[in-house]
Amino acid sequence: MERRQFLAASLATSVAAIATPKAGAQTPAQRERQYYLLRRYSLQTGPQTKQIEDHLRVALIPALTRMGLGPVGAFRVEVGPETPTFYLLIPGPSVESVAETDLRLAKDAEFLKAAEPFWSAPAASPAFVRQESALLAAFEGWPKVTPPEASSARGKRIFQLRIYESPSDRDHVRKVEMFHSGEFELFLKAGFHPVFFGDTIVGSRMPNLTYMLAFADTAEMNAKWDVFRSDPAWKKMQTDLRFSYEAIVSNITNLLLSPLDASQI
After folding, report:
1. Whole-structure pTM value
2. Staple 90 to which of 10, 37, 102, 214, CB 3.0 to 4.6 Å?
C-alpha cells in the first residue's frame, strides 16, 4: 500500500477508534464524559493575588459547587513563562453547564454579594490583568477528573499541566489516538496519577489537547518521567508509522502548578 493510501486509511480508522471506546472497557455511566472550562488569570504582583485567592475561596468555588460543578481545581503557576498566573479547572456534565457558568453566576444573588470586591473592582485597581478561557471535552478514554488521594487529605502535591499543539487537525487527531492506543496505560505503569485529559473545543492555539498529572513533589515527577521515557513499549510506540510519519506535536507548553488552599483537586 502506498504511503498516502496508508495514511488516509489509518486516519479514518483512528477517528473511529477515538469516537467509539473498546467494547466492555467502560460502563455507560463511565462513558458519559465531562466537559471542562479551563480559565487562566493573568495577574500583577501585589494585592491582586490575595484578592483572587479570597474570591475563589469565599465566593466562586462555593457558587460553582452549588451549581453542581466540580471538583474544582485552583492552581498557582510555580514554573512557567509568566507569573503570577492562576488556573481554574471547572468540570461539568455538559457543554452548557460549563459554557454558561458566568451567565448563571450573574443571576446568583448569594454569589454576587460574596464576590462584590472582585466582581466590581474599579478600573483604577482591577482584580486581574486579563482572564482567558478554553472549553475542553474530556477524552473518551479518560472521561472524568480523577483527583489524587492527597487532595481530599489536603496533603502535599504538585501538578504538571501540559498543552500539546499540533500542526494540523489530522496530526491532532493522531496524537489523541496515541493516548487511546496505549499511552494511558504507560502513564499508569510509570506510576503517574493523571487528573484529566481534554480536547480543546474552543480556545487559542488550536488544534491542541491539554492534560494534567499529579505528583507528591518534583523529585517524584522527574523519577517517574525517567521510568516512562525508558519503557520499551513507549519507544516502540514512538516508531509506530501511525504516529511517526511526521512530527504530530509542534509545540508543548509545560507548567508546574501548586494548589491553592481553596482547590478541591
Report:
1. 0.87
2. 37
